[in-house]
């Protein structure tokens, strides 16, 4: 299921027993005791780590990873109750983005060869705050929270994770931890692409026509619901098997990319104000012509060569090549038909997740949580390993 997010319930060894991360150490009766003592008394925690980049075999379980310390006044420590995997985690396991992400973790690493290992994967987390830095004002021990862990930080496939309060949000009250762990990374990515790059928001979406290519994946399914909650008209491309899913989430029109020429089918429709491209490749060659010319329309792609360039060409050459490519495409499209060409990226944003939390509790995105939660349990027996086993098949 390459087009969907793989949600993962990892086994951890806690106090002589084996439990899933979903619900581990997070019952109401023990929360306050946990917040006041657990993280401070123990020095090591269980986690899934990699010690080198490679295939499934590089992943190992250990209970000897140091508990992450609070090093800055704005940081909070979270006891992980549920975590999930994204396709990005699988790519990172193989070394995708390694050079730039290592530099982002430690800017001084450009001067030496210090290893970034052991590395903990996992981009989504739902859990309970157990400790706070002196400058934290929005959270307190015992708060139930969710977050998307930036890829340059140690991930959520562990007992604890430390983030800044600006990357964390209060968990929706209507969702369990396991349901909540299916949302933050795709939500943050979708918001960054649609708002920061696409210029959309709740106040300007009415009557806007938006096309989402590859709309049945995690970012696509979340974007459908968000855009419909904001009043946009949403067209989606996906396979026939996913049509029921995206229509159930609110898509107004659905084009089966396997049923003939998808570009020709879309060309018969009214032009679009924004295109969110989750597919990349040849899509860009025909999708740009579907935008309204000379009206401020925007093409936003989440499939960029940026990290591939820095991996293959080195940091400096990769950054220069990426900037040159983006600049040329942006200039070419603004001159030829007056549309804006942009790259979309994940951006950590706790306050944005606050807005998503409100939408979830208002029932606007409940279906997505249940859909991804259902996928989690459908996939659990396929992706959940015994200690030392594979995490995907």
TrEMBL record:
Record localization: Mitochondrion matrix; Mitochondrion outer membrane
TM annotation in the entry: none
Keywords in alphabetical order: Membrane, Mitochondrion, Mitochondrion outer membrane, NADP, Neurogenesis, Nucleotide-binding, Oxidoreductase, Transit peptide, Ubiquinone biosynthesis
Keyword NADP attached: yes
Gene3D superfamilies: Medium-chain alcohol dehydrogenases, catalytic domain, NAD(P)-binding Rossmann-like Domain
One of the record's GO cellular component terms: mitochondrial outer membrane
GO biological-process terms attached to the record: nervous system development; ubiquinone biosynthetic process
Domain Enoyl reductase (ER), residue spans: 54-302
GO molecular function, one term: zinc ion binding
Catalytic activity of the protein: 3-demethylubiquinone-10 + NADH + 2 H(+) = 3-demethylubiquinol-10 + NAD(+); a 3-demethylubiquinone + NADH + 2 H(+) = a 3-demethylubiquinol + NAD(+); a 3-demethylubiquinone + NADPH + 2 H(+) = a 3-demethylubiquinol + NADP(+); 3-demethylubiquinone-10 + NADPH + 2 H(+) = 3-demethylubiquinol-10 + NADP(+)
InterPro entries in the cross-refs: ADH-like_C, ADH-like_N, ER, GroES-like_sf, NAD(P)-bd_dom_sf, Quin_OxRdtase/zeta-crystal_CS, RTN4IP1, YIM1/Zinc_Alcohol_DH_Fams
Protein family according to the UniProt entry: Belongs to the zinc-containing alcohol dehydrogenase family. Quinone oxidoreductase subfamily.
Protein name: NAD(P)H oxidoreductase RTN4IP1, mitochondrial
Organism: Myripristis murdjan
Phylogenetic placement of the source organism: Eukaryota, Metazoa, Chordata, Craniata, Vertebrata
